[in-house]
């Protein structure tokens, strides 16, 4: 799915305030602590709370392996002022049940409210359509997560329906809205921004 350009761990995406880079072994502790925070984990499907360190280490290894072969692109969010410290994760991964790859993300609570995830999501969407020549992206948000909904809407995603998924942290199935952004919509937004 992703080209050779992204398949080396020196690849990074720079934004005004962020570096998006491959996760490394040293990020496992931050992933465990930040993603395992109940306020963060409950807004995701796969993350438990707490998130044991060994599971965060496994996540980093899987992310790097998938990045290396181009199956997906999972990046650590780091402030440009401190590129060694991950504050969140963002990724685009295929989903067997979906027709389009899925954009997913989380941000550690200390970095909430600063617009960092919108900046990261915009950069990842750009990378997917520009570098990978992507056709469409999908994403979803739990109904009680308006901040994530705003991020998707800012990136040009449009509502595509409703669904539900099991949240490990909540221990229950949660209602969600699904979103989609196709290449034509991305190109249209780029044209209007020029």
UniProtKB/TrEMBL annotation:
One Gene Ontology molecular-function label: acyltransferase activity, transferring groups other than amino-acyl groups
UniProt xrefs under InterPro entries: Acyl_CoA_acyltransferase (IPR016181), GNAT_dom (IPR000182), N-acetyltransferase (IPR051531)
One Pfam family linked to the record: Acetyltransf_3
The N-acetyltransferase domain, residue ranges: 17-158
Alphabetic keyword roster: Acyltransferase, Transferase
Domain of life per record: Bacteria
SUPFAM superfamilies, A to Z: Acyl-CoA N-acyltransferases (Nat)
Homology family: Belongs to the acetyltransferase family. RimJ subfamily.
UniProt name for this protein: RimJ/RimL family protein N-acetyltransferase
Organism: Methylorubrum rhodinum
